[in-house]
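Protocol step 4 of 6: record predicted structures for both targets in the notebook before any analysis. Target 1:
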Amino acid sequence: MRKANYIVWFFGFIELILAVLIGIQVYPMLPTQYFWILVAVELVFVVLVLIAVKKTWSSVLMSILAVVLIVLMFVGYRALDKVTDALDKVTDSTSGEHIQMSVVVDTEDPAQTVEDIVGYRVAYLSEEVSEGATATMEKLNAQLDGEVEYVEYEDIVSMVDALLAGEVDALIINEAYLAILEEQEGYEDLFEKIRILTTYEVEGTYHEVEIEIETETEISTEISTETESSGTTTSKPSSGGGSGAIWKPSSGKTGFLGKGDGPSAIEDGTFVVYISGIDTRGNPSVRRNSDVNILAAVNTNTRTVQLINTPRDYYITHPKSKGVKDKLTHAGCYSVECSAGALANLYDVKIDYYVKVNFSGFVEIIDAMGGVDVYSDYEFGGFAKKGYNHFTGGQALRFARDRKSFAAGDNQRGKHQMAVIKGVIDKLASPEWLTNYEEMLTAISGSFVSNFSSQEVYSLIRDQLENPSAWTVHTYAVTGTGARDYTYSIKNLKVYVCVPNYDTVNTAKEKIRAVIGE
């Protein structure tokens, strides 16, 4: 056999290996007809190789073609590998969120490092109130060359007040709780009065738990009893109230957040996604206040999305609160499942998936997409005009966070957040963003987490390729009335809350069911 034949066979063999590797990667996301087209192209190439080896001139041409194909396929393989790697990082995030537990002292305290607190009285919240305290004490004990005295507290306010009054020397506390307290009247300068010596990241428990859904009537009949002298709140449980251990929608269907034993919700064509935006930068798996709380009811058959915004201060129950009302934003400090459970409870709907994004990731993702087109009802801030705007990531973040420029405050901010999400959906439905796909994947990898599986994401991609028609996105925001009351998270201090308008909640329920068909 001529030397040229060996060269053709060699290049053909390399090309065939790459073809198989690419086929394995693209099969889950390509429509069947597209996949078989690729197989047919590869078979044609094999036939051409067999023909080419008969003549020297054709062997040379085929060798050149094979080299070109190998280069193109290698580039394609690397690109697909980045896609799968990015998806692996952001999907199936069921190993638990991270809790940032800090050791805190008063700013006047002489301790400068955590090793200086040997012999201190260290306060912590009971595990019933704050997950992660025990794990943090174990880490602290291992680091210290001596002992400390631990003092247990049952609420944030009393524990922080004890530190500021000198009753204890240090705190072990979830940083998310410090952020909660800093928002309250009288604690605005909290971070100026304390010093964080060190922060431990501990693994939070993944709560794939079932919760009890209460009907709107049952929720509204809960009675909050305020005792000014003791500064505590008690709740009379509703007739259908329970321990938060079983999730029973009023429709009678049992459901739960996350994965079930039945078929994927995406396979059914209808599902609900909880979109959570947390008030932090960096690791999106950290538990923090959830400042963005949007439900997306999706119907892939009708190409329809219904977005429902819920104000961050909505005064409702969540799985952790055991019937006591709390602000929706605070639920994120306990877990993303807790936030989703609160919304599932409120809207009497099964939430299948969550997507959790941090603010820095929000900016990076939109910049990587080349910006988004967003409609604004108002001109404000010196950057947004009435009508459609092409926003960079930073501009989109400003647009989505501003509430002080409007009389409607948080309600208008929620509408802006949904407008940005609509812009993102429209951009993703077009191939334009693919020009910056590498930047997009990098931004996604470090910016959000979800409980979608990789296969479910591939299924969505395949569905979009099979049916590239545009999506219809509807938006709706529930409303409420401002008030001040005690909450589960801050028991001894009245804070601003938004009491739900249940007429708007019922309208939201109808809009969700109109999309998912329940």
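Target 2:
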Amino acid sequence: MSKGMMEDLVFNQMLCSEGYKVDYAVGTTYSLDLTSFMSLPFSLGFIEDPDEAMKNSLSYVFTALRVCSKKLAVFCNFSSIKVPDGQRKIFYSLIEKSIFAVNPMKTGQKGKELINFHPKVWVIQESKIDGGGKRIKVIVMSRNVTMDNSLDVVCELIGDIGLKEDSSLSIARHKPLCDFLSYLKEHADKQKSGMIDKLIASIMCVKSFDLRDSPFDEYSFIPMGIKGHFDDGKQLLVRLQQSKEVVVISPFIDNYVLGGFNSAEKKTLITREMSLDGSVVDKFSKENIYIVNQHMLDNEDDNAVDLHAKIYYSRDRENKQYMYLGSTNATRNGFERNVEFLLGLQFAPYKSSYDKFRENFIHDKDCKFEQMISIPESEGDLLKDREDSRLLRSVITSIQKANVIIQDDGKYSVVLEIGGVICNDARIYPLMRPDLIAQLDGTVIFNNLELEQLSEFYAIEVRDAKQLIKINTENIPPDRDDAICRSVLSNGKFMDCISFLLADSKKAYVAEKMVNDALMASKAGSEVSRTDMPAIYESLLRTAYERPDVFNDLDAFVRSLPNDVIPEDFNKLYTCIHKAFKNYTR
């Protein structure tokens, strides 16, 4: 472990490996920012972190989504999707089948505590581009799919996929990870459920995840709050609280968890300043409590950084040392109620110590943390925020489904079915039509929507809380996506998308095209001209034989489009090349 353990996290770069292509990717997050989500298809589909020019192009975003959507599934908390800014919301309808909102509330559960779907873990199957084999990559982190720039932690494990199921010992070792994926499968549609089944089958063929070149000699996967693992978090907490030495790093804390560390001979707490109160200080003592350096919080460039990592170090009574990292805060909800995921790592003998581990975070040079000086005043709005969150959840849960009805004039109406809680403070509108905002009462009908404006995403406002929700919307016409395709690929953009897919470097292609478009704008326009066709066809033919993985992506893109957006002359030649390619690869 290095002192760079909590350095800046470039999310997209973690998901892809040089020399490999993603087959399937399943990710989980508590909160979801759709703007952040839109960059995932570029990374997973093209192994490139998109620049602003790529993300601002309608056609390139569309191309990435069409290539990647069938191999990507992201699961998030049902009430934690951010309402996106900007005008390009038409794309969000195309990612509906890749996003699944999970409500983990247990039937009949007593009490008023909020239960969240809170894990941050990615499971990815990737294949070597040169055909050298397949492997599973498990990335456990504390980072959500958002624009947040807080201090987070991440750990990656990689295991090669064998030709058959491994020993019963390996299968048992990886069963908790497979159980977690099986839980996600229950919340997915048929296509993504099949994808998850393939991931589970691949994990069963992994003998071991590689710990070479690390200070660890053992690992364990620890899902919490799901069938078969409801007590796993509680049992882990008991083991942590019996530690001889412990370091707790968590932005959110409570006395239920921290009060159990009284018997530890050495203990350190690193947390957010606003999470502290007098009772916490009594349990850990002032000299053992650290908070984020004030200079990071006071950044004048609107880049204030706070703590978001969740890490636990433990030396037990038998002098074995462990580190646990992932999504679980040092709270009762974290260990006993929420759906969470931690990775457990056991240190090899003599590879760490309490002081050495602590030094990763508390050191003299450029330290991100400083010793607590005084207890901050409590936030007066905290109780109000929690009450607003509870009300928002109850309102969301009351919306059972939506139904699309075609109007006499060819436009569409959407009817919401409401059951249970009725709230006078709640308003709702379809994501594509904020002008249709309506009071949420017994019957809600949105009229006069165009085909491409139909979506399962709706924005809901309850008092000061505002979130995007996904509602099962029945009878959306199957040609809705085709209508979106036509609107995006008008004015000759199809050939531009083909050139984009064929480019060795997507960034270089976009940069060069921007220069060419600027030069052509003063002459005959900026679209791809007929004289570009031979070069595109030559590139297409060369790609089919030299880079079959890229050709397969291009083929998936072409086949996902309605026939009327594909130029006839391109279609004829492409059909010939495609037939030759299939014969060549048999």
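Step 5 preliminary note on target 2. Confidence is low (pLDDT under 50) at residues 525-531. The longest helix spans residues 168-185.
Proceed to step 6 after PI sign-off.
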